[in-house]
Amino acid sequence: MTQIADARLHDEMMRTAGDTAVRSHAPTLPADHPMDMPVQDLWDGRRRPTRSSQLGISIWLWTIASRIMLIAITLALSGGFAWGLYDVLQPSQSFPLLIALITFSTVCFAWVAFGSAMAIVGAVNLMLRGDADTLDLPADPITLTSRNALLFPVYHEDPSDVRATIDAICDQLVLRGDADAFDVFVLSDTRTPDAVKYERAVFQSGTNRFGGLKLYYRNRSENSGKKAGNIAEWVTRFGRAYDHFVILDADSVMSGETLVRLAAAMEKHPMAGLIQTVPRLIGSQTLFARLQQFAHGVYGPVIAAGYAAWQGASGNYWGHNAIIRTEAFAQSAGLPTLNGPPPFGGPIQSHDFVEAAMLRRAGWGVHMVPSADGSFERCPPTLIDMAIRDRRWAQGNLQHARVIGAPGLPLVSRIHMGLGIFAYLASAFWCLALLIGLWLTAATQGQVPSYFPTDTQTLFPQWPVYDPQAALQLLLLTAFVILLPKVIGILFAVIESVQRGDKRSGDIVTGGVVEILMSMLLAPVMMATQIRSVLEIFIGRDSGWSAQNRTSGAPSLHELWVFHRWHVLIGLSLAWSCWSLSWYVVAWMSPIIVGLVLSPWLSWWTAGRAGAGFDRHLATHEDVTTPRIVTRVLELTSVVRDRDTAKG
Question: What is the pTM of this model?
Fold first, then answer.
């Protein structure tokens, strides 16, 4: 792909994008090519076909070694914490709450230790292997023989943004000479007539400059099953015409090269049912989004490598930026409707985890390729937007409790679901541990130590035991485990920066310090929000299905107060309770108290533009060296918006 050819395509893009309104309309829909997609019986206990591990011997050995390393590190760290906490507290039979405190604290620490162990496993794989991919993606030159569909499920999204992404992707496929191997489908579940009319006008405007590649638009009359039902309807209607399909959310972007390599990998590995990329975050404007993008871009690669290393061919699916074998999906991933009403019944909300597990149950490989470049997405611009999305995820993950015990699911798939469930229960466990600790502190206030217990006869007093050195060691261990994944990520990012010669090592370290401090303040807010979500789910409140806010825009003062008033009340109550015990307790709990009390201001501040200083220190590699596909999307977004405004 030469720079001259790239520049020539850019000029052609900018020339043709402005006059697509007068070109011929794209065909509404292709001819039907139906494919059966039977609804699967989750509780069917019949024996499934057993197939090979679908991993090369070297990758298989690395997978086994990674699993052993992951388990050993997690158990060692968690065991050390439990023993240290026991040594500090010295519980007796008269204090069962201390045992509860140790139990809850150790379970939560094990959750953190698992993440740290995964970062260590990822670092080892990156240093010794170079990557942690579970299969190889072919490199150019590539000649595709398969037919592939790019699916964009949309629900009240900005069609101009989606169209700009489609145009940029299609232009790259045309430039590569691979347009004949792909078609694009916009699968709309938008409900209001005016919005549907606008979508139709945007997506059905001329596309004949894409060569053999066609762009189709379809709006469902009934949006049953939400996103999963939208995709299933496409499979049953058009699936037989395509060997593979790629799921792209409205804020997803993938380069033409990555799409071709994914399709080539599916051709090369016939037992691969799904290949999941690890999208990088792009396009952040607000401080909150900048923080998320920095964390994902700096800490994410090492953690993703560890995640891929231990799961092998029993990987997970995140619902987008992945390629799927159509036949495998149709045969094995038809989702049933769970008995009962939402939130625990009804359609399976977090369908992606379950679809990956069902593919594995049928013997298909589910792979992850963290090293694949050219896969991107955007993140929510504000804390409130993140919390709204997180509420849906919480309901979907907890709903997996109805699925995790289904017969025939591989152990690793059950682990994926279990981790997803505990990700939201962990906040409640942390809260219980904190409350028990405060209760015990209050209970021991003013107690007179019994130096000569009545149940024993001794001439010598039994002095209260407190080991400040053990307490300090426990505190340092906890801080070490919490910060370890971030420190490893920063080290790898600095090393890559030095190798590229971009002289950003200082900015990366400064950005890491800023992100750590800000995450300390925002974490209590997210913890309280997740606890509320879990409580709402257990009392039967459904999250519903609302359109996502993907663009920046500060919430109003009313929105801030409505969302954060409970955080402020909890923070003030916690501060008063701690102060009534001791100022030492206030100091110990200050990060939580400050984060909760200042939550409206933090939410407002982080919803604004990051500013030049934060932009510099929180910049990721994609900000410094913007990928061509991202640049194209940004350029075409303004062109498409101007064209649609003129038409309107």
Answer: 0.90
